[in-house]
Amino acid sequence: xxxxxxxxxxxxxxxxxxxxxxxxxxxxxxxxxxxxxxxxxxxxxxxxxxxxxxxxxxxxxxxxxxxxxxxxxxxxxxxxxxxxxxxxxxxxxxxxxxxxxxxxxxxxxxxxxxxxxxxxxxxxxxxxxxxxxxxxxxxxxxxxxxxxxxxxxxxxxxxxxxxxxxxxxxxxxxxxxxxxxxxxxxxxxxxxxxxxxxxxxxxxxxxxxxxxxxxxxxxxxxxxxxxxxxxxxxxxxxxxxxxxxxxxxxxxxxxxxxxxxxxxxxxxxxxxxxxxxxxxxxxxxxxxxxxxxxxxxxxxxxxxxxxxxxxxxxxxxxxxxxxxxxxxxxxxxxxxxxxxxxxxxxxxxxxxxxxxxxxxxxxxxxxxxxxxxxxxxxxxxxxxxxxxxxxxxxxxxxxxxxxxxxxxxxxxxxxxxxxxxxxxxxxxxxxxxxxxxxxxxxxxxxxxxxxxxxx
Length: 455
What we know:
The chain is α+β, with helices and mostly antiparallel strands and 455 residues long. Helix content is 22%, strand content 33%.
């Protein structure tokens, strides 16, 4: 009798616990949803619920990094076990590599000018990032975390441009910086945070993506506080660091009747809907574009467009052929290349579907094709983010697999000439930071002048 009562009480308690757990789970789900949609009805309660719900994901992320130096941009997935530095044969023609990489031995980023005929390092730049950061105004909301997030051990010299005087222009979601041939600071522009590519136009000015703040778009869409919206802009900067022109990409889309791409995507506000990662200036007139036009790569829209600043018109756009792409380059007067990351985001994160691709679009034929597709497959090229490609005039192909610290150079017959893996003495592989092949006649002349008379 007592045993029977005891069992009944335990079952009753179990049912009660189950019911209370169900109510608690539903309530917690409601609070999490309210926080995700931006509701402020439940204040600290919804914030706490979201924090608790994200604990498993955050613990997983932390566990993946435990064996690595978190202060350095190190590659997590171990690949290329038997390859370090250059592996393969040098090229015969005179051309150079402006290699930007994180040096795992020095625990800082450097840039090296390498003669690809011998793989010899001809010149190295290693700027004092701590000294440069000390000159920035960290009271500016855009740079309040500069000293920690972009310390010397975390700073990546992104897409450095080699100037005629042997200096470099670079950035990393930071002020735009120029150093001289001896790695000393020449100028610093902190009007906005500059990021991604740096390219020179026909007038000798530079086009660099930046992030406008305070926001110029209607505040009901983007909010007023820093960080609530990434207002990417195309920004033209003179050789002395002065901003000559700036235009919000969001405004470009809105003024060309494409507002739905930014604010009409789903029920939840997206603070980084555009993600401008490349500006490629048009240097010469052609049948499909004018000198002064700009090709823009908008990663989070998986879109490439041709924009004419003089009329504020989008002349052409591509969407549906590339996913999360980078790096648009003009091959000739009717053809462009696009580095297609072929990257997609699912519930468990972002993945490359198969491999990265170098897409070729022919305006004359209105046709897309894939360049040296089998080479990318054979060597398993699959950077999820970032990445660069260049089809050289002779048909050779250069690829940077940024996320995995690897560069590859393919001959036009699809064979691999060489590859480079940025491995340190500790065995870890570190990021490469948007390197360049210098092969045009004007680039070769510039390098020769720097090497012969730079010192």
